[in-house]
Amino acid sequence: MIPFIKNCTRIGWIALAAIACQSSVHAEFEQTQEMAAQTRWVVNTINARHYLRGDMEQLSGSEMVEAYAESFDYGRMYFLRSEVDDFIFRFGDAMEDFLQKGNLYAAFEIYSAYKQNVQARTEWVYQRLTQDFDFAAPDEFTPDRREAEWPADSASFDALWERRVKYELLNELLSLAGEEAEEDASLEPTNPDLIEDSDDAPFDPSKIQRLLEDADFMADTLDAAREKIRRRYERNLTYTVDREAAEVQESFINAMTQLFDPHSSFLSADTLESFNSAVQ
């Protein structure tokens, strides 16, 4: 089927261990001949379409690498700046040649590094959630980091994550405390990198007072908030390690096509088949 361009803690934690074992099975992606042909087809289409920004000779390898890394690390929370620079050094100059040949080696290498970083940072989050937090100390965290820079070093990396987990825990603590007593707090996990607007009613300040005055209520609510965050990261990790080669290919090609035309999207054969089934 021809795709188309459409305008428009530690390992001791049981959940983490299970996912880690699963990920080792899928540690290496396998490129098929069909995927190589699809990639070459997209490149040829770009070169043939005059409405796009240009042709492959104008492609900036470094720009392509950054765009691809941003396509899944859009919060700049899993790569260091030095890691992205290393990808540019390794693959930037050869990116045009990779694409012309339909070679997805660079895409698979970068995503595999991302997957390893997500596993390591999720383990860190699990472990950090078992420890105490000081909510009295002034601090700040900007949840929407789509325009931010990747951390420069390990120290700033860990400090960024410290602020993020504290921010998430405090948000969940206040959210759970504000729920009506007869309602169960939803523990359904969501992608921790997605920023969503909230239409909730204004928070009742009296709930904060109860957190401060009722030690048992504070402890129970804090445990529920920790569990909610843990499950959220567990789901995100599962999604990350379960992505298949065709999905990685799709992200890679879209990072390239959108450099030429922000409204162009590549659908792999599998995604196209699912799309067609959904609209029938």
Secondary-structure topology with pairs:
Blueprint (H helix, E strand, L loop, with lengths): L3 E4 L6 H12 L7 H16 L12 H12 L8 H11 L3 H6 L4 H25 L24 H24 L27 H9 L1 H28 L2 H16 L3 E4 L1 H11 L1
Antiparallel strand pairs: 1-2
Helix pairs in contact: 1-9, 2-10, 3-4, 3-10, 6-9, 7-9, 8-9
Task: Please summarize what this structure is.
The chain is mainly α and 280 residues long. It has helices at 14-25, 33-48, 61-72, 81-91, 95-100, 105-129, 154-177, 205-213, 215-242, 245-260, 269-279, and strands at residues 4-7, 264-267. A two-stranded antiparallel ribbon has the order 1-2.
Explain what you see:
This protein has 280 residues and is mostly helical. 61% of the residues lie in helices and 3% in strands. It contains eleven helices and two strands; from the N terminus they run βααααααααααβα. It has helices at residues 14-25, 33-48, 61-72, 81-91, 95-100, 105-129, 154-177, 205-213, 215-242, 245-260, 269-279, and strands spanning 4-7, 264-267. The chain has a two-stranded antiparallel sheet. The longest helix has 28 residues, at 215-242. The two termini are 17 Å apart. Mean pLDDT is 78; it is low at 1-27, 180-189 and 275-279.
